[in-house]
Specification:
Largest sheet: 5 strands, antiparallel
Radius of gyration: 15 Å
Distance between the termini: 33 Å
Length: 97
């Protein structure tokens, strides 16, 4: 998920951990980014974390990461009424040649 929560961009995801050739656990992760200039061209990670406990499914890991990341962004701004706004990450233009 990519979402704006106030002045922060929250990016979340989920993945499985491989141990001895077996998928053993599902974890969620989130990163909170801030644009120092405020124009969205210079995002910098200010915090990143994994869910504390493994989850039984990737879907639950993703939902938990979403909840934790959004909640943390609201807490950092001391405003729990902030809504999540959808965010599409622009792809960089790669010069030809």
């Amino acid at each position: 998920m990519y979402g704006l929560v106030g002045k922060y961009l929250v990016i979340t995801g989920a993945g499985s951990v491989l141990k001895n050739g077996n998928w053993v656990a599902n974890y969620g992760h989130y990163s909170i980014l801030e644009s120092a200039s405020g124009n969205g061209d210079d995002w910098k990670v200010i915090e990143s974390a994994l869910t504390d406990e493994p989850m039984p499914t990737l879907e639950l890991a993703q939902a938990t990461a979403d909840s934790l990341g959004i909640g943390r962004a609201r807490l950092l701004q001391n405003d729990f009424s902030l809504e999540v706004k959808s965010w599409c990450v622009p792809f960089p233009v790669v010069p030809k040649g």
